[in-house]
Amino acid sequence: MSEALSTRHLVIRLSLVVVGMFGFGFALVPIYDVMCQAFGINGKTAGAYEAGLQSTDESRQVRVQFLATNAAEMVWEFGPQADEVLVHPGDSTQMLFVAYNPTDKPMTAQAIPSVAPSKAAAYFHKTECFCFTQQVLQPGERIEMPVRFIVDRDLPADVRHLTLAYTLFDITVRKPPVAQATLTRAAP
Amino acid sequence: MSAVIDPGHAGHGHAGHDHHHGPAKGLMRWVLTTNHKDIGTMYLWFSFAMFLLGGSMAMVIRAELFQPGLQIVQPEFFNQMTTMHGLIMVFGAVMPAFVGLANWMIPLMIGAPDMALPRMNNFSFWLLPAAFGMLISTLFMEGGGPNFGWTFYAPLSTTYAPESVTFFIFAVHLMGISSIMGAINVVATILNLRAPGMTLMKMPLFVWTWLITAFLLIAVMPVLAGCVTMMLMDIHFGTSFFSAAGGGDPVLFQHVFWFFGHPEVYIMILPAFGAVSAIIPAFARKPLFGYTSMVYATASIAFLSFIVWAHHMFTVGIPLTGELFFMYATMLIAVPTGVKVFNWASTMWRGSMTFETPMLFSVAFVILFTIGGFSGLMLAIAPADFQYHDTYFVVAHFHYVLVPGAIFGIFASAYYWLPKWTGHMYDETLGKLHFWMSFIGMNMAFFPMHFVGLAGMPRRIPDYNMMFANFNMVSSIGAFMFGATQLLFLFIVIKCIRGGKPAAAKPWDGAEGLEWTVPSPAPYHTFTTPPEVK
């Protein structure tokens, strides 16, 4: 009967919409990242910057402040060696962050960077950063971790002051440090 | 509803066909039924049970908030109450009530013998008791039930969630599957089973609003399913959709959730628009003013609902252009909504109105929903929202659109169609008493929340500053009144089922539509031969 047939066609089509929208929910994840990057919102910075050095813009200075926060339940001591530096756009600058594991267990940590104001994020290039990898610290171990960055010459003139904030997460459960520790021991 | 199963009425002139039989006997009738009236009845009873359960949780909340300080429950349990109240009312009370009304009324309104997919219809109903059984059981588990608010923002609902969150996730999956199947069924019924001559633009508005609602459901319930699936994967399979530690982003959760959540609020109100558009003309004894504009307004609201979601997120740090876009898009919704309110008012204008209970609820719907709409406009103003966000002003706003909006719409529909369902008139005096107690109680409960909200009282907190004490006590008294009154509604419905003045086929002299051409109570099988629609 044509009525049953057209119902069947309709149900198939509507089910495809359902499947499509389920996929769309997951597609929102990359769309979200692309949008954040395209519009330079959310303060998310890109990965390692490899476009080479820029010439220094001596005509202005930008105040770069550093902020280090522990995520909930993270117990490491974590902070920058200086609260802020003055840089010329185009200059390559290095800042050291110190992390210390006060516990009696090896732990893995991941730092997540964020730049404020968010429109400056696209002009803040990191050529080297401890946030590109995870840190494994043995009990009582202290390390200095470098971040090397360039503030782009094209940074909008009204931004005179930007903040680089790191949040340090305990990801020991996700990436147990044991495997990596044996790996480093095995290497030499 | 025993009165609807009288097989003596079956057939209505076609009793010779062999498939014209009454329902089976006993419990299995309800378990196995594929009859749209039986399933509609089960949906409505289930919804009412959930309404009372979610309502009792609201009573716990209001009892704790009766006075400042902690008296009755611990904050942990209070959080579970606010969360479960929201979840049960949204997914357990309002949505199934409208699906129940759709099951009962859409085939009768378009002249169809049943829903297009009766077996799926049975399955989508029976998923609901399973889903809510699972959800409610979490309250008795170690660590308690969901305590992260009905919006279940990550990481509260992932990293910091109680163990029972997995049951919550699967319950949401089941509800989602049930809603999607219900929606597909409604679309298939409306598009394929209309009586000859029933063109789309001749359909009653309740059918139109449900058609649009069904498309909204099909579009956004899968996104909700995706959202909770991502939570599940974050919790159990080591992904990091919403966990910043692994490169994800909790703000993403809010985008995904509200992409579902905003259309969801229209899912809960559009069918009420349709019901009220049937009831007001019936008691104003005038045809609905602006039928075509009503259809287009409903479609516009549905479309706009997809591009306003971030107005729930003005304070998370979205860029200025985003705030402006979502602010203006949100305000744009006031235009089609205004068209609807204008049309309802114009329908009543110079009508010979009488105020039976369905009409009382419908008029209150128009007035109070408009108040809720206006507070929505205030919330839409992005810079002002920074003050209102997460305060009781928001609570006042959405209760004004949901209680006198969705719930009053359901009450109006129930009173309007009860004679058709049961074959008896309900007790008009008690119905009016139910209306006035609900009306006064609801306004007493929710109107003061505007004031405490503007003064800065945060939502979802079991304690509050002394300065809010008086208004909160008034709110609580109103809430107790509203809550207790709903037991009266239960009594009225049972009384109506058990007896009362016999209802004519068309008990309301101004009513229009095919449902009034069948006898009251509606026979078990109707429109086995499609009616002619001129």
Low-confidence stretches of chain A: 179-188
> Taking all residues together, what is the mean pLDDT of chain A?
84
State the assembly state of the protein chains. heterodimer
Q: Strand share of the residues of chain A? A: 25-35%
Shape of chain B: globular
**CATH C-level class of the largest domain in chain A:** Mainly Beta
For the record, the CATH architecture of the domain at 269-501 in chain B stands as: Up-down Bundle
Kindly name the structural category of chain A.
alpha+beta
- For the record, what is the CATH homologous superfamily label of the domain at 269-501 in chain B? Cytochrome c oxidase-like, subunit I domain
Largest interface: A-B, 33 and 40 residues
SS elements, strand count of chain B: 0
Give the tally of β-strands of chain A.
9
Which architecture of the largest domain in chain A would the CATH scheme give at its second level? Sandwich
SSE order of chain A: HEEEEEEEEEH
Number of helices of chain B: 16
Pathway (chain B): Energy metabolism; oxidative phosphorylation
Enzyme class (chain B): translocase
Domain Cytochrome oxidase subunit I profile (chain B): 30-534
GO molecular function (chain B): cytochrome-c oxidase activity; heme binding; metal ion binding
Please provide a written account of the structure.
Chain A: This is Cytochrome c oxidase assembly protein CtaG. Chain A: Belongs to the COX11/CtaG family. Chain A: Exerts its effect at some terminal stage of cytochrome c oxidase synthesis, probably by being involved in the insertion of the copper B into subunit I. Chain A: Its main location: membrane. The complex is a heterodimer of chains A (188) and B (534). Chain A has 188 residues and is of the alpha+beta class. Chain A has helices at 2-38, 177-186, and strands spanning 62-70, 77-80, 84-87, 92-100, 107-116, 124-129, 135-137, 142-151, 161-170. Chain A has 2 domains: 1-38; 62-186, Ctag/Cox11 (Pfam 04442), CATH 2.60.370.10. In chain A, the strands form 2 sheets. In chain A, strands 3-1-9-5-7 form a 5-stranded mixed sheet. Chain A has a 4-stranded antiparallel sheet with strand order 2-4-8-6, with no helix packed on it. The N and C termini of chain A lie far apart (77 Å). In chain A, 28% of the residues are buried. The longest helix of chain B has 36 residues, at 75-110. By secondary structure, chain B is mostly helical. Chain B has helices at 27-32, 36-64, 75-110, 118-137, 165-192, 205-236, 250-267, 270-284, 291-304, 320-332, 334-348, 357-380, 382-388, 392-422, 428-454, 469-498. Chain B is built from 16 helices and no strands. In chain B, helix 3 packs parallel to helix 14 (392-422) and helix 12 runs parallel beside helix 15 (428-454). Helix content of chain B is 65%, strand content 0%. The interface between A and B is large, with 33 and 40 residues.
